[in-house]
């Protein structure tokens, strides 16, 4: 059965919210209509004429890319092949929707940087560069000591955005206790009564508080659910670009280089050797992260894995004892389609997901 794009986009944006994207970026549905349903999705690093033709051949109604096909504000929609809007207008003509997940999925927990760390067996500690520091609340609700009620209310809360903390979702604390009450409508009641209840606690982002409380009211068996909302003044959901982490066992530089080439399918990498011998702490930024060498050094990284390292940044890194491994922009982001395939297929196993077969690094080694 064809998949609703609204359902798909809602799921993708629960993992990589659009508000995480950098201010200069352009993410989300860029071409088409989210009221459509599709049976086949094509995944690609970016939309090119070859990718668009591939989407047509495989019958894909949606192409999901990492790089936006439209970045700057559009004043004219021209169809000539040399125009900036040629691909967008051709996608519209063919009835193909185009969705972009770019810096939002770079920054999000469980996104592209985390996926690369997972492939390299790096234990993530924190973002490399803090982008957003968002206020959290703790929502506490008491409910009857009934497993069905607990399941119904907790799942509704999770779906509305509760229970997200760092890289974890569906996180809550559940306890049991006794509740006392006196029914003011019952004039015969002369003393408090008692009942057994569950106490369910979860963190919630300030932007999701209303949705979560509404979800509780919709599923709670009590006419007036007992809900507490407590601002966590010292509790913050920290997200940001890149990751800093560590290997369980130190590696040598040759070992790490070979691991990177094997994992990312590369024939070569470029290394600015700052003298690292035993590598434990690692910084990672997929895509164009060469300008963040100072942040990687400040974070205590022995090695920084990224792409698009510039000459003077390489000199600075070497002089300051930081080893940088440049796997290329394409090399560090080619795993985008693998990650997106997993995210979509885990949630919507009946939809057909195709990874583009016509992508290649535009920079070749001769």
Automatic annotation (TrEMBL):
Alphabetically sorted, this entry's keywords are: Metal-binding
- State the source organism's domain of life: Bacteria
Q: Where, by residue number, does a divalent metal cation bind?
A: 66-67, 106, 329, 333
Q: Which GO terms describe its cellular component?
A: cytoplasm
- Gene3D superfamilies with a match to the protein in the record: NIF3 (NGG1p interacting factor 3)-like
Q: Which GO terms describe its molecular function?
A: metal ion binding
Oligomer and partners: Homohexamer.
Q: Which family does it belong to?
A: Belongs to the GTP cyclohydrolase I type 2/NIF3 family.
This chain's protein is named GTP cyclohydrolase 1 type 2 homolog
* Taxonomic path: Bacteria, Pseudomonadati, Chrysiogenota, Chrysiogenia, Chrysiogenales
